[in-house]
Each structure stands twice: as C-alpha cells, then as structure tokens.
Amino acid sequence: MTAFITVFLTVFLAELGDKTQLATLIYATDADRPRWLVFTAASLALVVSSALAVALGGAAERWMTFLPLKLIAGVGFLLIGGWMIFDHVLAAR
C-alpha cells in the first residue's frame, strides 16, 4: 500500500498546474462541450499515456539492464532544473 500511495502522490503532485491540466481547464470552459466528455477524454488520455510509460519502463528495465536508468533519469531532472534556474537568473538581469 505504501508503494501505491508514493506513486499516487508523486504523479498527482507532478500533474498539478501541468500544461495538461491547463489544456483540460480550457476545454472545460467551452460551453459547447459537455463536462463529462472533457473529463472522460482527458482521463482516457492520461490512462493511455501512463500505460505507455509503464510499458516502456518495463521494456527498458528488461532490455537495458546495463544502464543505470534511475540515475540517468535523476541526473536528467537535475540538469533540466539547473537549466531553468540558470535561464531565470539570466532573464532577471
């Protein structure tokens, strides 16, 4: 159960304010679109993209055992974060 809660909270927090949510919000503001249709389409898109991520992650774990995938992902996130901070500092000048 702890693993489920960890995954849920991580993905939930990562999605808050994401461009996906903003797109869904914009679609939901259109009076010509039923809310249930926006909810269903957005939910299905998230389920399909998550299924694809899990399938690719499983394949990567099976076929790329020679690579430290978690380390590569972690370094990638740090580099992107550093790049964003550096870009922000440059823009503030």
Helix content: over 70%
Euclidean distance between termini CA atoms: 48 Å
Which overall shape is indicated by the principal axes computed on the Cα atoms?
A: flat
Number of helices: 4
What do these coordinates show?
The protein has 93 residues and is an all-alpha fold. The protein has one domain. Helix content is 83%, strand content 0%. It is built from four helices and no strands. α2 (19-28) runs antiparallel to α3 (35-63). The radius of gyration is 18 Å and the shape is flat. The protein starts with a helix and ends with a helix.
Outline the secondary-structure elements.
Elements: H1 2-15, H2 19-28, H3 35-63, H4 69-92
Helix pairs in contact: 2-3
How would you describe this structure in keywords?
single chain, 93 residues, mainly alpha, 4 helices, transmembrane helix, transmembrane, GDT1-like
In short:
The chain has 93 residues and is an all-alpha fold. 83% of the residues lie in helices and 0% in strands. The chain has four helices and no strands.
